[in-house]
């Protein structure tokens, strides 16, 4: 058993190292004139065991460690404590069936968790025809290996397995809350539950993240504890950058003036418990930006309660998107051209917050510089290493073509340095 676990850790370490390298190289080369699949086709994998509760064993081990710490350490604390527990679920699992080098495209669970999902309630998301997709969306769908044909059953299974994985995640949170209750700590502990991203689960013909669509960018954020109003749903748009000032506020630490985020306590606290008069400086929008892999342009989102505006690159070379979320919650109708005044107003607001054309230009330069440094660092192994990243199944069909495309891209960088 110990040997098996040791081998798993070695495999996981090697996988994470490889996956990180692939992510970086794919992001650096997103402007290269080629299109390569970087993930295995999303699939499901079921453990047919009705009693198997601990599927993601690494997360359960960390949950057990957190519980043990609460029982042995926190219970004896005379001062406030902070406990952070990070879980990998409900990320998709690695997909070794896709070949030697692979991404994470397997939705994996057991019958124990799958039986908790109401299959009849699962909706199959609507898709635009491939020819009508936004060019950045098409690039994302292709690199995520989602442009092929999927049956309704396949799509529904992926979504069902994802919900089952969420159920397992929720159970881990439940164990933490139960332990706090058993130790009489729950009534004096504030619990914050959130995620760094969502999961598309085949919405917009994609899985995973790297998108400004709601399924990817809209994350859970739950707060409970003393002074927090129970059963309250806050309609304001908030951001993950609000977590840090919220924790400072909980600790009674004055908030620095240069923070990007805002404390969530004025929105969530009971009026009687929030005696401090806090001036409402929170803007009616949130900002998100992305510059990584599986997307071939720097992406910026300005989100209000009603509108979502998505700008790309320099704001000119790639058309923007505008969605009225009150009328189009599935984000299928880009109305940027139909409502130019709203599009212009939101774009000007976005530019007042961040000079996104300038940021995009910096990212372009950074990507080439980093790629050149990486290429030089691996020397004669370059051709072999780059051919065997996550895109290896397509790359190896015509390696000369793809290396030439990169060389052409690098020439433009060299030329621009001498202009």
Automatic annotation (TrEMBL):
Q: Where is the Sulfatase N-terminal domain?
A: 57-253
Q: Which GO terms describe its cellular component?
A: extracellular region; lysosome
Pfam families, alphabetically?
A: Sulfatase (PF00884)
Tell me the compartments it is located in.
Lysosome; Secreted
Show which residues constitute the signal peptide: none
What are the protein's GO molecular function terms?
A: arylsulfatase activity; glucuronate-2-sulfatase activity; metal ion binding
Keywords for the protein's UniProt record, in alphabetical order? Calcium, Glycoprotein, Hydrolase, Lysosome, Metal-binding, Secreted, Signal
Question: What is catalyzed by this enzyme?
Answer: Hydrolysis of the 2-sulfate groups of the 2-O-sulfo-D-glucuronate residues of chondroitin sulfate, heparin and heparitin sulfate; an aryl sulfate + H2O = a phenol + sulfate + H(+)
So what EC number does this one have? 3.1.6.1, 3.1.6.18
Q: Which cofactor does it need?
A: Ca(2+)
Which family does the UniProt entry place this protein in?
Belongs to the sulfatase family.
Q: What does this protein do?
A: Catalyzes the hydrolysis of pseudosubstrates such as p-nitrocatechol sulfate and p-nitrophenyl sulfate. Catalyzes the hydrolysis of the 2-sulfate groups of the 2-O-sulfo-D-glucuronate residues of chondroitin sulfate, heparin and heparitin sulfate. Acts selectively on 2-sulfoglucuronate and lacks activity against 2-sulfoiduronate.
Q: What is this protein called?
A: Arylsulfatase K
Source lineage: Eukaryota, Metazoa, Chordata, Craniata, Vertebrata
